[in-house]
Write a structure and sequence with these properties.
Blueprint lengths: L9 E3 H8 L3 H10 L4 E4 L2 E5 H10 L11
Antiparallel strand pairs: 1-3, 2-3
């Protein structure tokens, strides 16, 4: 039997906040405002890192704090 691919590129609000040194409340507000992509699995809201990276690297606009290689 094939094993499912469990590499979903997701993390909890708490883990994302810890990585970015942000309070959990700020991360939750960003999700609600649509700034951070998310998905809910089994009633748990998770930050969708795969979509966040895809949106960042597919963005055609270069912001002053970013560089383009």
């Amino acid at each position: 039997m094939n094993q499912p691919d469990l590499n979903l590129d997701l993390c909890t609000i708490e883990a994302f906040g810890g990585m970015c040194v942000l309070p959990d409340e700020v991360v939750a507000e960003w999700i609600e405002a649509g700034v951070l992509p998310s998905r809910t699995i089994a009633g748990i809201r998770l930050v969708d890192l795969g979509r966040l990276n895809a949106e960042r690297f597919n963005d055609k606009v270069c912001r002053p704090s970013e560089s383009v290689d």
